[in-house]
Each structure stands twice: as C-alpha cells, then as structure tokens.
Design goal:
Blueprint: E1 8-13, H1 20-29, E2 33-37, H2 43-60, E3 65-69, E4 84-87, E5 92-96, E6 106-108, H3 112-117, E7 123-126, E8 131-139, E9 142-149, E10 151-154, E11 159-160, H4 173-185, E12 189-192, H5 198-208, E13 213-218, H6 221-225, H7 227-233, E14 236-240, H8 241-247, H9 253-266, E15 271-274, H10 289-301, E16 305-308, H11 310-313, H12 318-334, H13 336-344, H14 353-367, E17 370-376, H15 381-388, E18 395-399, H16 402-408, E19 414-418, H17 425-438, E20 447-453, E21 462-469, H18 472-476
Parallel strand pairs: 1-2, 1-16, 2-3, 3-12, 5-6, 12-13, 13-14, 14-15, 15-16, 17-18, 17-20, 18-19
Antiparallel strand pairs: 4-10, 5-9, 7-8, 7-11, 8-9, 20-21
Helix pairs in contact: 1-12, 2-4, 10-12
Length: about 475
C-alpha cells in the first residue's frame, strides 16, 4: 500500500486492538508494523493476533511486518504486610532475600544477582524512579540504603539499578520459550529487552537462527556505553526512552536519542524511536502540542520508525493515534527544513560497490526527473542501503522473498513489492516499471532508476544501475526481450 510519507509507524496490539476490523483499520490508517508485546497475553492470544495480521496481509495483497517484543528479566520487590508503605526522604531502608512480608523498614528483593553487583554509593530506583535510594552498605544478601527521594512503595514494584552491570542475561527462561514460539509462528523481528552487552545479542541471534531479525532495545546506561558493539551485531535498534529516562537524568535522553539515530543511519540499520510519543491519546482523541513536537523531532532526526505503545494497545482512541502520527509525518516531510536536515546529516561513508551504486542512484534522482528508485533485493541489503541515502524519490523494494519484504516494512521509505525470481536484467527492468506505474509512483512518460545484482537472487551482489523509461510496451508486453 502506497504511503504519503517515508517514516514508518509501529502500532502495538492489545485489548483495544485485537480483532480483524480494528487491526485492519490500524493498517489502513497508517500502521506499517504491528508489535506483539510478550509481556502481556498468553501464547494463544499472541497466535490469534498473528493470524489476524496474516489474514489482513493476504486480503490486501501487501506484505505486513510483525515485531515480537520479548519481556526480558523483571526485577521487582516482594510484598508488604500492609500492601504499601510511605518512605520519607532521609529514612533508612533495607532490601534483603528474606522471604517474608515487608514493612516501613525493609522488603524482600528476590534477586541475588543485584546484591552480587551492588557497591556502596550505587543507586536503587523503585517504581519507575519515583523512589530513589543510595546504597550505604551491602553484602551478598542485603543492601542498607538511604532514601534520597521518598514516596509510596507497594507490592511488586519494579526496581532499576542504573550504576552497575548486572550479572543477568537479557533472555529469561520465559523469553527463551517466547522466542521459540514466535519464531515458529513466523514473526519478522524480535525486540530484545534488557540488553547490556554484545553477548546478549549473540545469544538471541543464535536462538533465532535466522528465523527473525534481531532488534536490540537500548534502555540501560550500559547499553549506551556499549552501543557501537551492540549496533554492529544487531539488525536494528529501538531507542526505548522510557527506561532510559528512569536510569539516566531525563535531560540526557534527547541528545542520546539523536546520537543513536545518527549511528543507526550511518550503519544502514533501521531504528525505532519509542515510548510515550502520544501518551495523552490513551484517554484523549487529541494529543498535546508537546507530544506532536516530540514525534516531529524523531522524524526530523531521520528515524526509520516511530512507535505507539499503550496508545494503540489499550487506549480509547487507537485509530485516531495512528492517524495523528500519519498526519504529523506527512506535514513534517513536506517541510523544506526537513529535507535540508536529512541531507545535512547524511553519512558520506562509501566502502563497497553496493554503497556506490545506491549513492549514484540517489544523486541521479536528485539531479534529473527520475520518479523512483527500484531495487531488486534478495536479503534486503540493497534496500536498506538505499534507505540510508534518504533519497527525495520513493524507494520500491522488489523481492521474491516474502520474509525480506516483510522485514523491509520497518525501513525508512521502502515500498515493498513481491515479484517472481528473475534471471535476466531485462526482466528486472520490466518488473520495476510495472511496479512503479502500477503502484502510482510513475507515469508511462517518466523514468525510474533500477538497481540489481549479477548473479541474480544472491545476497550482496548489487552491481548494476540503469535509468529505465516507463514505456507502455514494457508494462503490457507479456514476455520481455532476451
């Protein structure tokens, strides 16, 4: 389905969006990728949503991307005798491993890994950072703390430990089961939570074994510190600003977001900006002006995708939230300033023949009347390299691999079209022209740029660039010339 903007929209599914009509309406309103949150819903519910998406895909005849977001380890306190306690600033409070109900002086923290990693002076954050504590003394089974910022602490509230690398793997036993389940279902991307180091990504990639692309969520300070290595072994990145804003000073998050997006663009790997983008639309049909500015900033930065979480999963206005994102994206991308910012921040790195081919296609499109860049791709590499260039004309990604078409739905500006295997470059040109005219990207009097690789249907062989006229004889002739 042709979109009137380049940035992609990720919509999370949940109780507010779990039936055919609503999910189809979300897609038609602009959702390009559907996120299945493995933190909510059992396998039967996840499978039902997956099947609905694939049914919509078949009904509309267009590839749709599915992203499964793994929960990751959840660190939580135990329970309190009174259900909750009020902690005052300056008070002392103890966390320990004792399996008994807490009070105003202590509570169980059933995670020995935390105590193993803690040091005096480290911070402990409870309930999304609303309560902040500083560790005075600690041992293998306890931590004595001073309350720096007080508040109400209650049963099973989450705990963040921003100052240390925890000896925890990103994949819990639940995550391993979920990963195997969704890979067998046939999801296109896996979002990996709680990434701290490159080894976390290696483990997920080994378990996925090529069945899904791996997207690392950057939500911890240690992931920011190790970002270059994590990016190198990941297929994509999510800037998870919610947890970053808990574990880091909130004022540090915007520059980190910009730095990570730039690095992802340079590496030609899709990047999603996520968390609280239109949070007020959970309960309101209209967003705040600040939220619209936030969404706009991510688009100006050149992010591949922007994401809705509770807005589309549990909110009262899921369709309106997607529509709002679509309208904001269209308006921003019409702004001449947007194009100047995108082109000023484009990487100049060229190391391969494929890099040079797609750069040349973009430059020709900018200096002539080329209407689109059509790239034939088996693995998707040519398409993401073309997307890295952020060209002014549409990108048509043609592939015979349905898995490739679906995964590319996450990449900036890519319009994915399924085609049969090709054996001659003439067939590439014919298929590209038919797709460009048939999808409304060009007229029969226009020209398009076509990139491909010889030998055909092999990854990493992009080595041909041709400017092709969209002649009627190419569109309607049943057999191409030899």
């Amino acid at each position: 389905m042709k979109r009137d903007r380049n940035v992609k929209i990720v919509a999370t599914l949940g109780p507010a969006s779990n039936d055919y009509d609503t999910i189809r309406a979300l897609f038609e309103a602009g959702a390009d990728v559907f996120r299945l949150n493995m933190s909510h819903g059992d396998h039967a519910e996840i499978e039902e949503r997956h099947n609905i998406i694939r049914k919509i895909e078949a009904d509309l005849g267009t590839p749709i991307c599915i992203l499964a977001d793994l929960q990751g380890p959840k660190l939580r306190v135990g329970t309190f005798k009174n259900g909750e306690e009020e902690l005052a600033e300056g008070a002392t409070f103890r966390f320990d491993l004792q399996d008994k109900e807490g009070d105003a002086k202590r509570v169980q923290l059933p995670h020995p890994e935390i105590f193993q990693a803690l040091e005096s002076g480290a911070s402990l954050l409870v309930n999304d950072g609303k309560i902040r504590m500083k560790v005075n003394t600690c041992g293998p089974e306890y931590a004595e703390c001073t309350v720096v910022a007080g508040g109400t602490i209650s049963n099973r509230k989450g705990v963040n430990v921003p100052d240390v690398v925890l000896p925890l793997k990103a994949l819990s036993e639940k995550d391993r089961k979920d990963l195997e389940f969704v890979c067998n279902l046939g999801v296109d991307w896996l979002a990996l939570s709680f990434v701290q180091r490159v080894e976390d990504v290696y483990e997920a990639r080994a378990l996925a074994n090529g069945r899904a692309a791996v997207l690392s969520k950057i939500e911890k300070p240690t992931a920011v510190e190790n970002f270059d290595d994590i990016l190198n072994v990941s297929d994509g990145i999510m800037v998870a600003r919610g947890d970053l804003g808990v574990e880091l000073p909130v004022q540090a998050v915007p520059p980190i977001q910009k730095q990570l997006v730039r690095k992802c663009r340079a590496a030609a790997k899709p990047v999603i900006v996520a968390t609280q983008m239109l949070e007020s639309m959970i309960d309101s049909p209209m967003p705040t002006r600040a939220e619209v500015s936030d969404v706009s900033n991510a688009i100006y930065e050149g992010a591949d995708a922007i994401m809705l979480s509770a807005e589309s999963a549990a909110g009262s206005f899921p369709i309106e939230a997607v529509t709002t994102m679509t309208n904001v994206a269209i308006e921003v991308e019409k702004d001449p300033t947007y194009r100047r910012i995108i082109e000023a921040s484009r990487t100049a790195e060229r190391t391969t023949v494929a890099d040079a081919i797609v750069a040349a296609a973009r430059e020709i499109a900018e200096t002539t009347e080329i209407k689109a860049i059509a790239c034939f791709t088996s693995s998707g590499t040519t398409a993401v390299l073309t997307a890295r260039e952020r060209p002014r004309v549409p990108i048509i990604a043609l592939t015979s691999e349905v898995a490739t078409a679906r995964r590319l739905c996450l990449s900036w500006g890519t319009n994915c079209v399924m085609t049969g295997p090709v054996e001659r470059f003439k067939m590439c040109v014919v298929a590209a022209v038919r797709a460009a005219v048939g999808q409304g990207f060009a007229e029969t009097t226009d020209q398009i740029a076509v990139t491909a690789g010889v030998p055909f249907n092999q990854a990493g062989t992009t080595n041909i660039l041709r400017i092709a006229p969209c002649e009627e004889r190419l569109i309607f002739k049943s057999e191409p010339d030899t």
